[in-house]
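Sequence only, no structure available. Ideas?
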Amino acid sequence: MFENLSLKIEKAIKTLKGHGRISEINVAETLKEIRRALVDADVNFKIAKEFTDQVKQKALGQNVLTSVSPGQLLTKVVNDELIQLLGGDQKDINITGNPAIILISGLQGSGKTTFSGKLAKYIKSKGRNPLLVACDVYRPAAIEQLKVLGESINTSVYTEIENKNPVEIALNSLKYAKEHNHNVVIIDTAGRLSIDEQMMQEIYDVKMALKPSEILFVVDAMTGQDAVNTAKNFNDRLDFDGVVLTKMDGDTRGGAALSIKSVVNKPIKFVSNGEKLDALDVFYPERMASRILGMGDVVSLVERAQSVYDEAEAARLQKKISKNNFDFEDFLSQLQQIKKMGNIKDLMGMIPGVGNKIKDMDVDENAFKGIEAMILSMTPTERKNPEVLTASRKNRIVKGSGKNIQDLNKLLSQFNDMRKMMKNMNNMKFKR
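Reply:
I predicted one. C-alpha cells follow.
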C-alpha cells in the first residue's frame, strides 16, 4: 500500500536544495511535487493543499543543523503533518458493556462479513468471548459465509433463517449472548447504498434498538475518493465511531486513508490486508506515516513476530542448535512460523529503507510451498538425518513433492550451509 505515493514523496524531498535555512524559494518546488503526489494518490485537492500549506508554514525559516540536511528536516515536518492527517493518536475499539455491542456497517462488497470474522478472532485473542450475529437477511450467502468463518475460529454464530427483520434478530441475539456468556456481540449487517433511504432507515433502526458501544464503517480502500464521500453520507446518518479500511493489499493509491479523517473527523481503527483471518492490523497513524516516508515500521514487525512467538518452541530450538542437532523438522517449524506473520512483501516493507526498493520486485508468496512439499515428502528419519538420502530416496521425494532433483539438491545444499554456520557460531561461543 502507498508504494507510489511513498516513492514520489521521497523523490520530491531528495530534490530539496539549499543550506543553513529552509526558505520559500528552495522549498516551493518540493512542496509542489508533494501536493501533486497526494492528488495522484486520490487525496482531495483541498486536503492536499491544506497539508502542504501546513508543512510550508512549519518548515519556513527553520535553521538546519550541521548534522542534518534540509531534506531530513523537511522529512521530519512532513512526517509530523502526515501523522495528524492520518488521525494523530491511535484510537482503541470500545468493548465496554455486558455485552459490548459492535455494529458493522458499509456498502455491499466492502468486506464487512470477512472483517466481522477477523474482528471476532482479534477480540478472542484479547480474552473475550465474542458472538457473531448474521443480520444480512438479503444475501443468503452472507449467513453461510459467517457460519464458515465462525467455525474456522471456533466462535458461535447466531442466525435466524426464517426471520427477515434485522432489528428482531439483533435483539434476540442479545438475549442469546447473555444466556451463553458472550461478552461481545458483533452484528454483521447487509450492504447498502447511502442513497437507499429504506436501507439506511433500517440500519438506523438497528442502531437505535441496540444502542451499540461501537459502530464501525467498513470501506473498500480501492474505491479511493468515493470511499470518503460514502463515509460522510453514512456518518451523517449513523454517527459511527471509527472506520475500517479493507483491501489495503490491493492496487490502491491510499487516498481514502489520507483523506477520511479530515472529512468525517472519525479515526481509522483497523486496516485489513487480505482474506486470511489474521490479516487485520490495528491502525497506528504514526507507524503508517513512517511507512509512507520509507522509514519502515519496526514496531509492527516486532509485534507480528511476537504474535506467533512460542517460548517453549524457541527454548527447544535453542537447545537443539546448541547441540548441533538442528534438522528439517525444526526448519519446517520455522517456515510455518514465518508464514503466520503474513504477506512477505508487506513484512519486507516494514524494514526501514526497504519499502520503495521492493516496489517492482517480484516476491513469490508461494516460494515456501515447494520447500514445504519436499520436507513433507521425507520420512521422519530422513528429516532428522538428511545424510541418509540416497538416490532412490531422493527420487521418491521429488515425485511426492512435484519438484525436480535440482530443487531438492539445492535445498539440501542450503540446509547444510545453514547447519555449518550454526555449528561455527556455537564453536565461537565456546571459545570465549
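The chain has 19 helices and eight strands.
Hope that gets you unstuck.
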